[in-house]
Amino acid sequence: MDALNEIKHLSSPAQRLNGVHQPPVSWRATLIGFLLIPVVVMWVHHAEIRLGGMQGHTALANTALPVGAFFALSVVLLFNLCLRWFNPKWSLSQPELITIYAILASTTVIASSGGMHFLVPA
What we know:
The protein is mainly α. It is built from 6 helices and no strands. The protein is elongated.
């Protein structure tokens, strides 16, 4: 009966099926997300300020799908595929990839020129 109670306390249906309890946010997903923030924000600022001034407005962060965060996630996915091929235990799980994307999407939108108009008073 103890095993049944333990399974009931798992947080998601997928975890109940697997019988494995994982923390909702891993330290390595948070670390990867935080390490990618400066790279993506600098890229968005370069595109909006330098390229946007010469060629018109570039909306890398203010689209329905933030392009900067999505591109960084694509790079992480490619790296994850290589990692899964070499050592599957080290590869990132789906919740970790979602955590990385959520960190990058929220920070790039806030740090973009469109987000700054709402945060900094004129």
